Amino acid sequence: MPIHFDKRRYPRLFLTRSSSTHGVTDWELRRPTPIASVLHGVRMDPRQEVLRAVPRWADTAWEMQSHLLRALLLKHPTVAASHTSAAVLYGLPLPNRFADPRLHVATTVKNARIRRPGVVLHRVTDFGFVTILGHQLISAPYLFLQLAPAWQLQDLVRLGDAMIGNWHGPPLCSLGALTQLAASKKYLRGRERVQAALGLIRPDVDSPMETDLRLWTISVGLPEPSVHPAVHCSALGCEVHPDLGYREAQLALEYEGDHHRTDRRQWDTDISRVNALVQEGWQVIRVNSRTDRRTLEQTIRARLRESGLIP
């Protein structure tokens, strides 16, 4: 999945029954300060560290889910992270109200049992999984359908845009794969919401904020802007792709997150891009979380009227 990752050191995990293989004696397992137990039958030895590849964007929530999943897979190799846990490990946008420190896993093994605080087992009839950086994760299309019944439409579109876009790495799947899996299900919870979301998901989206801005334009009755329209800029000698745009009106919408302000290189790039677009006759509207949406709507409507795109 991620192209950009770091190397971080973590304590070695091992099965208790294999402790001698890892140079751990029975006394060390039972001494007053024993080798820590992660879950029943799995230990963690901080004296023996391993170097693991970790996505550069990985946070504390990612590391907690990763640690527990790796331990669980030693005892239960048929499970894969699912639901919100899979979303966290993929680096997908997760609504705050669904943040859950528990590890959710799924399996097709009907008699599977996992009794451990902090682990939720889901028995499912079918699923596909992938292995990424040592984690077994339910595949993106199945995850999309797992989360759909409980998520609101906008959150589901954000999820789909991130899955087929380039937010935290290469696309996890295609829109066609999402559509095909949904269509193959005779019974599908939240089918109407799934179909609505599939109709609004777009490729090549770089961030959930771009998704939110695009969906906002639709919600206020504006024409839907294109995602990353190509504009050849003579000043730079290359194509520039604003976040969103109306080509016929030569109007670009650029969402500016905090990193655009704090990262000097990004800031310099943004200035060059905006200047190049303006030289080509484009109007560029820069948007952030504090932008007044009523004023923004009026500005967009005025430009679209001038271009004859709306009455």
Structure write-up:
The chain is elongated. The chain has a four-stranded mixed β-sheet with strand order 9-12-13-14, with helices on both faces. A three-stranded antiparallel β-sheet has the order 1-3-2. It has 311 residues and is an alpha+beta fold. The mean pLDDT is 90. It has three domains: 1-125, no CATH class; 139-204, no CATH class; 208-306, VSR Endonuclease (Endonuclease, Chain A). The two termini are 45 Å apart. Strand 2 and strand 3 (42-55) form a beta hairpin. Helix 4 crosses helix 6, helix 5 (153-164) packs across helix 7 and helix 5 (153-164) crosses helix 8. The protein contains eleven helices and 14 strands. 30% of the residues are buried. The chain has helices at residues 26-30, 60-75, 83-90, 140-147, 153-164, 175-184, 191-198, 208-219, 258-262, 264-279, 293-306; strands at 5-15, 36-39, 42-55, 80-81, 103-107, 119-123, 129-132, 135-138, 226-227, 231-233, 238-240, 244-246, 251-255, 283-287.
